[in-house]
Amino acid sequence: MRQTLTLKPVSKSLHIVAFFIVSLALNGCVTMQRAYEEPPPVQRPLEEYVVKNEFSVAKNDDVIGRLKLLRLEKGDTLPDIARHFSLGLNGVSAANPGVDIWVPTAGERIMLPLSYILPDAPRKGIVVNLAAMRLFQFKEKGTSLEILTFPAGVGTEERPSPMGNMRIERKVSRPTWHVPASIARDHLKKGDPLPTSVPPGPENPLGEYALYLSAPSYLIHGTNKPASIGLRATNGCIRLYPESIKVLYESTPVKTPVNFVYQPYLIGRSNGVVYLEVHGTTEDLDIAELDRMYAKLKTIERESGRPLDWNKVKKVLAEARGIPVPLFEIRQGAGKTGADPVEIRHPAELQGRPKIPELRANSWSVLAADLKDKNDAVRLAAIINHQGPPIPARVVTKEVSHRVVAGPFNTIKEATDAIKRLKIDLEIDGTLIEPIKKDNQEKGGEKR
Fold this sequence. Notes:
The protein is an alpha+beta fold. The chain has a domain at 1-33 and 354-448: Sporulation related repeat (Alpha-Beta Plaits). Helices cover 22% and strands 27% of the residues. The chain has helices spanning 21-25, 78-84, 89-95, 181-189, 242-251, 287-304, 310-319, 374-385, 412-426, 438-442; strands spanning 54-58, 63-65, 68-71, 109-112, 115-117, 125-129, 134-141, 144-151, 154-155, 164-173, 177-178, 197-198, 209-213, 219-221, 232-234, 238-239, 257-261, 265-270, 273-278, 325-329, 342-344, 364-371, 393-398, 401-409, 431-433. The protein has a nine-stranded mixed beta sheet, with helices on one face. Strands 23-24-22-25 form a four-stranded antiparallel beta sheet, covered by helices on one side. A three-stranded mixed beta sheet has the order 4-3-21. α2 crosses α3. The chain starts with 20 loop residues before the first helix and ends in a 6-residue tail after the last helix.
């Protein structure tokens, strides 16, 4: 589990274009006609959507959920949308290429990839598809399957998550994190020495719950960095939203089998229709997995006696939007119920969105940047707000200047700790802003 969620600006001038290079890499632009086109807006009352992680399907079905469309509002960010709808940032970003992660356009309509093809693996216990960065838990119930699914943060390329079969060895509520020597060395190099252990609390990267795997040093756990869900951001552990790990913890007994797979190309059948879901760009091609995908599609084509549109397959591969795309009907007249997305009403409140307290004149704060472009300032403030543990920040506009101010902090130590984290995590040189004394306020001192 990595200690720092790195949200680095692309230049020292803080002209930040984006965050999360990995997830942006999934959004390669495609000039050809899209394999899947969103339907035009429909003039009808929008439905409320209750976020769900649990599904019940027939044992021979491979596709769960349904795609949704959402019109963004001012102040939305894709990490906040992702968390509210129990999606990973990789999923929302890949499904909506070209949409600004931190400052999307208000009124823009985006796809919520709330439909998933199940991994091609035994449907028992927990299966983690590292390519999709999604965890599935299977439980049999008569002739159907009960499925829990959550987005996940997974290991980096340098320190990947494990592959293969293992099991849950033990479960711990409010775990203590014993810092591995390799992580301690990494932080020491950055001037950020860590203690030998971190007790439960907001500084603990394991969050409130941890499931320890039979593979030593690997866990499925919560996090104090929720914006990292749906990214390759850990030292190999599987990281879930705080609300997700609580549900999984309570529903998973010790000795539950856990299977880690890497399946970027998923084929599934539902209601007589064959679907293809692709994760990663052509630059990330896994030749062995690609060969298996083509062989499986050719077998389906031969057994069904119906021709498959191979040009559409190429388009789905090129776009890699991480959503199930219908390829063809196995039999003529097969139903397509649930294939088209439904537009939903924007939630009144996005659960998990960072709450930004107002600045107080008698508190400490930190100037993170002074920028000319307002969008750059809004973007940087959003990035700082999504650090973990949270560093509250907002934009304070003064004439033609847009200042990104972090705080309020109750003590000078809290403020200087924030300056240190801004430097280590974001390479930002913050400037301490002292509280305005009461007598200065009464004389009309400068307001921030």
